[in-house]
Write a structure and sequence with these properties.
The chain is an alpha+beta fold and 507 residues long. Helix content is 46%, strand content 8%. The radius of gyration is 25 Å and the shape is globular.
C-alpha cells in the first residue's frame, strides 16, 4: 500500500516549519534553510499500518519521521521479527544517501505519521551550504548509530567488569578524603543531604578579601587537577585495565563525575584532534579520542587524585556527597525538562547541568575553609551563596566555572550555563541551555538537593524565574503555556521519576 501524499497540499508552510523545528535533526537549520528543504522534499501524511519500506527492494530515499511512530522489522523464517521502533525525530533509510543498495529491513507505521522524504539526487541541486549542513547532521546520526551499535554488541559478551586478577595488579585509585567511605555499590538512599555541624566542629569563617578578577582567573586556570567522586573512581577502576567490554556503562560512569567528564571533553576538543566543531558529549568524545586513549587519560587523573594532598571540602564527607549528588540531579532534571518542553540543543543538556557547579571545585582549592561553612547554622541568613563567595573567596563559582571551562576548551554553551545559572537574565548567548540549567537548579533546591545543609537554602518561586522568558524567546511554541500550571505538572512528573533520578548515584 503506497503512502498518501495529499498532506503536501493541505499543510501550510508555517505549520510544517513548526513541525520541523520541534525535532532534533533540524535544530541547526534556520527558517530559510528549512523552507528550501521543504521545497526539495516531499511531505507525507501516512495512515497507521502503512508499509513505507519493503525489505529487499531498491530505492534512494531518506525518510525523516517528523511526527508519529514506525516499526522496523525483518522477515525471518516466514515471520516478521521487529528489530526496533522509531518515533518523532528519528530517521530511517539512511543507506540510500550513500549507495543504491537493497533495503535490509522493512518499515511500517504504527500510528498516523508525518514523514519527510528526501531524495539525494534532488538534494544535490540545493544550495551548497544547505547540502553541507544536511550531510553533517546525517553523519552525526550515523556516528551515533555506530556508537549505539557498539554498546549493544558489548552487551552480548561477558560481564562488564574485568576479572578480579586483572584489577588486583593495581589498587583502585580513590580520592584521599573518601577512603573511609564504603562504596561497594551505588547508594540506594535517595536522601544524602548534609546536616548542620556545630561551630566547634567547623573551621573559622574566612576573612573578607578583595582579589582582582584577573588574578583569580590565573589561579583557577593554573590548577586543573580537581576533585573526583571517590565512589565513581572505584567503579571506574575496573574499566581502566584491559579491554572495555561495556562502553555504555563506561560512558555512564564518566558522566557521573563533573571533572572526569570535563577532562574527556578537554582532550576531545584539544588541537591535537583538529576538530572544526566542538565535541559536546561524552559519547562523541569516546568516538573522537578512542576508548584506549580515554582509559589512559582517566587512569592518570585517578592516580593524581589519589595522590593529591588537597582534601576536598575540608574532608567533610557528607558535604562532598551533597555536591556530587546535586550536580548529577541538576543534570538529570535539565534533561527531563528539555524532553517535556520538547526542545533540542546541539550541546548535551545533561552535561551542562552536571558541570554547572564545576567552579566550586576550583574555589575550594583557593579557600578550603569556605564551603564547610555551608554546614554552619545561619551562614547564609543575610546573604546569598554567590555574594558570600565574592566576599570571602574573591569570585563566585559561576565565574570560576566559566574561567575553568574556557581553559579546558569546553563548548561555549557549557561556560554560559555555569556562568549564568544563578542570573539567567544576564545571558546573551545560548539562552535556552542557560534557562534549562537555571530552572533545573531551582527544582533541585526546592526538593532539598543542595550543596551543604538544607537549612542554608532558600527555595525561590520557580514560576517567577526570568529563565521562563528565555525559554519563550528560544522556543516560541511555549508562549501560550501557563507557567504556573506547567511548574505544578512538571513537579508531579519529578515526583513520579524521583527514584530514577536519585537512586543510582554513587556516593
Amino acid at each position: 500500500m503506497a503512502p498518501s501524499q495529499k498532506a503536501g497540499k493541505k499543510e501550510q508552510p508555517d505549520q510544517r516549519l513548526i513541525f520541523l523545528k520541534r525535532i532534533s535533526f533540524f535544530a541547526p537549520f534556520d527558517d530559510h534553510e528549512l523552507k528550501q528543504l521543504l521545497a526539495l522534499s516531499r511531505w507525507l501524511k501516512v495512515p497507521a499500518n502503512t508499509l513505507i519500506i519493503k525489505e529487499n527492494t531498491t530505492d534512494r530515499v531518506l525518510y525523516i519521521l517528523v511526527h508519529g511512530k514506525v516499526s522496523v522489522f525483518k522477515n525471518m523464517a516466514g515471520r516478521e521479527v521487529e528489530l526496533t521502533t522509531l518515533s518523532t525525530g528519528d530517521t530511517f533509510g539512511e543507506m540510500a544517501m550513500v549507495a543504491e543498495t537493497k533495503r535490509t529491513a522493512g518499515v511500517r507505521t504504527l500510528s498516523e505519521s508525518y514523514i519527510l522524504m528526501v531524495e539525494p539526487e534532488i538534494l544535490n541541486h540545493a544550495n551548497v551550504f544547505l547540502q553541507l549542513k544536511f550531510y553533517r547532521r546525517f553523519c552525526e546520526i550515523l556516528v551515533q548509530r555506530l556508537v549505539d551499535a557498539n554498546k549493544k554488541m558489548a552487551g552480548f559478551g561477558q560481564p562488564p567488569l574485568p576479572p578480579v586478577e586483572k584489577v588486583a595488579k593495581k589498587e583502585p585509585p580513590v580520592a584521599r578524603q573518601k577512603k573511609k567511605v564504603a562504596v561497594a555499590a551505588p547508594a540506594a538512599d535517595p536522601d544524602s543531604s548534609c546536616q548542620l555541624v556545630e561551630e566547634s566542629g567547623l573551621p573559622a569563617i574566612p576573612e573578607a578579601r578583595v582579589v582582582a578578577k584577573s588574578r583569580m582567573q590565573r589561579r583557577v586556570q593554573d590548577n586543573l587537577e580537581l576533585a573526583i567522586n571517590p565512589a565513581v573512581a572505584t567503579l571506574l577502576s575496573g574499566f581502566l585495565v584491559g579491554e572495555c567490554e561495556d562502553t555504555r556503562r563506561f560512558s555512564e560512569l564518566i558522566c557521573l563525575d563533573p571533572f572526569l567528564a570535563c577532562k574527556v571533553l578537554h582532550v576531545a576538543n584539544s588541537s591535537f584532534y583538529r576538530r572544526t566543531t566542538a565535541v559536546s558529549s561524552v559519547a562523541h568524545a569516546l568516538v573522537t579520542v578512542g576508548i584506549k586513549n580515554v582509559q589512559e587519560v582517566l587512569a592518570e587523573e585517578l592516580d593524581k587524585n589519589a595522590a593529591s594532598e588537597h582534601v576536598f571540602f575540608g574532608g567533610y564527607d557528607n558535604l562532598a556527597r551533597s555536591y556530587w549528588r546535586h550536580c548529577v540531579v541538576v543534570g538529570r532534571i535539565a534533561e527531563l525538562l528539555a524532553e517535556v518542553i520538547r526542545v533540542h540543543t546541539y550541546e548535551d543538556v545533561y552535561l551542562a547541568g552536571l558541570l554547572h557547579d564545576i567552579g566550586m571545585l576550583a574555589l575550594d582549592q583557593q579557600e578550603p575553609d569556605f564551603y564547610p561553612q555551608l554546614q554552619r547554622r545561619g551562614f547564609l541568613d543575610n546573604t546569598t551563596l554567590t555574594a558570600a563567595e565574592h566576599n570571602l573567596v574573591g569570585i563566585d563559582h559561576g565565574q570560576a566555572g566559566a574561567f575553568l571551562g574556557d581553559k579546558m576548551g569546553l563548548p561555549k554553551a557549557f561556560l554560559d550555563a555555569a556562568r549564568f545559572h544563578h542570573s539567567p537574565e544576564k545571558a546573551k548567548e545560548n539562552i535556552l541551555i542557560v534557562a534549562l540549567v537555571a530552572l533545573a537548579e531551582l527544582f533541585a533546591v526546592q526538593r532539598g538537593v543542595v550543596v551543604g545543609s538544607k537549612e542554608n537554602s532558600r527555595p525561590q518561586p520557580i514560576a517567577e524565574s526570568f529563565a521562563w522568558v528565555l525559554v519563550v524567546e528560544a522556543h516560541k511554541a511555549f508562549v501560550d503555556v501557563d507557567v504556573e500550571g506547567f511548574v505544578q505538572e512538571f513537579d508531579q512528573e519529578l515526583e513520579r521519576s524521583w527514584n530514577n533520578i536519585v537512586g543510582d548515584i554513587p556516593l
